[in-house]
Amino acid sequence: MSECPTYGLMPVDTAIDILQQAGRKKLPIIEEVSLIAALGRVLAEDVFSAIDVPPQANSAMDGYAVNTADLLGDMPFSVSQRIAAGSQPVHLVQGTIARIFTGAVIPEGANAVVMQEDCQLLDDGRVKILDTVTEQENIRPQGQDIVCGQRILQQGERLNAAAIGLLATIGKPTVHVYRPLKVAFFSTGDELVEAGKPLTIGQIYNSNRSLIHSLLISMGFIAIDGGVIADNLPATLAAFKKASESADVIISTGGVSVGEEDHVKAAIQQCGEIDLWKIAIKPGKPLAFGRVGDVPFIGLPGNPQSVWVTFLVLARQFLINYQGQRHKLLPHAIPVKSSFSIKKAQNRREYLRVRLEATENGLTMTRHVNQSSGVLSSAVWADGLAIIEKGQIIAEGELLPFLSFSSFGVA
Ligand code: AMP
Ligand code: MG
Fold first, then answer.
1. How many domains does one find in the chain?
2. How confident is the model at residue 1 (pLDDT cuts 50, 70, 90)?
3. Which among 319, 307, 310, 299 has a CA at the least distance from the CA of 236?
4. Which end of the chain is more exposed for a tag (fewer CB within 10 A), N or C?
5. Could you tell me if 293 and 251 are in contact, meaning their C-beta atoms sit under 8 angstroms apart?
6. Are 19 and 25 in contact (CB under 8 A)?
7. Atom number, ligand 1, closest to the C-alpha of residue 191
8. Of ligand 1's atoms, which has the minimum distance to the CA of residue 262?
């Protein structure tokens, strides 16, 4: 394969910017759902707390609630009340202590909790305190986590399990989220055969169909499987037009090069607009972006490994913005030592499939032996992507940016 010239290739970051901006044009429909139904969805409102959390100061330990001023007096102390979690205490009788349990409200008049391990219960029911006690010890103050009126979550946040738990903490039963995007997806290629059927010469199984379907589901979108489009113009045009009637976004794989059997461009020119980008990304490079009628369209390359990388790095950036997400948009790259060297510079930014390994020298990453764009096994083997910039030479042991697959939300 001859190398493409650097000239005319769009930098990956430019493509990401364009896709992010385009994704901010419209927000999807808002709906109100229960907390569990909101998992993985994007919040359509700012959420403020109407309470302090915790609502009252409570005990962090099983033990005795005391007033430190009383502890200067004679030992031992009599126990004047018993306060379990969920019960309402009365004012602490001066000169006494109160039996208290984790999560129970601190009585008025008490200013510390002594853990039971630091106390000795005498036969007569009185208690000796064996250690020194400081004010506020073992007390979780009112509003320690959240204060009344505080914004706990912002519009545009994707709700993970921790966020759902936080919503529950303030007693919110439902929440406003964006309806999941409906993403129609197609595979193109006359060589493609579905699972369960035998292969004849020249045919391959359709991996992108299941790959894209799975990626869309794992990101929380409603995936509309448009099947395979035959490599001809009328079939391609009809499929895209039909999808635009029900989908919010259309994605296809393959057919975006400029070969005679690539009909995506011609079809979309008849029913919308399309730009064919040549992006300085490896694997990948050809990517189509446009619209069918008013419905945004992304045409990914055909090779399954190119699909995996361009979906994560590029298409995902459009989709999450279009879904209304406004926070944590880019995965965080962390520097990790490479266990390999690269002597020949490339004219595209490369996303290598790498695996993390804990070694005596700390965390290192190893690359899969076969980085070909047709080899999907490398994505299963790998933990994430190492970024090699255009023109970069790498020495063994050098720190390289590492993007874990989990940081894309698809591990
Ligand atoms: P294309 O961009 O259509 O020329 O496809 C590039 C390469 O990816 C060719 O080798 C295709 O056979 C392969 N390919 C395209 N679509 C798929 C698919 N859905 N599953 C597996 N391989 C594919
Ligand atoms: Mg093709």
1. 4
2. very low
3. 299
4. N
5. no
6. no
7. 12
8. 3
- The ligand with the least distance to the CA atom of 251 is 1
Residue 294 shares a structural domain with residue 393? no
Q: How far is CA 254 from CA 259, 297, 406, in A?
A: 11, 13, 26
The position carrying tokens 């079939």 is 235
| 191 and 302 share one domain | yes
Q: What is the pLDDT of residues 53-63, one digit of tens each?
A: 999 999 999 99
Q: Are residues 107 and 123 in the same domain?
A: yes
Same domain, 355 and 303: no
Q: Which residues, other chains included, contact 363 with Cβ-Cβ below 8 Å and sequence gap of 6+?
A: 336, 337, 356, 357
Q: Which helix (H) or strand (E) holds 246?
A: none
CATH number at residue 114: 2.170.190.11
Integer Cα distance of 229 and 240 in angstroms: 9
Residues 197 and 155 occupy one common structural domain: no
Binding pocket residue ranges, ligand 1, CB within 6 Å: 187-189, 191-192, 204, 206-209, 253-257, 301-304
Q: What is the mean pLDDT of residues 150-156?
A: 98
Residue 351: give the domain boundaries.
Answer: 334-408
Note whether 114 and 131 are within 8 A (CB): yes
Helix, strand, coil percentages in the chain from 3-state DSSP, rounded to 5: 20, 30, 45
Please calculate the CA angle 56-39-60 and round it to the nearest 5 degrees.
25
Q: Domain check: are 62 and 136 in the same one? A: yes
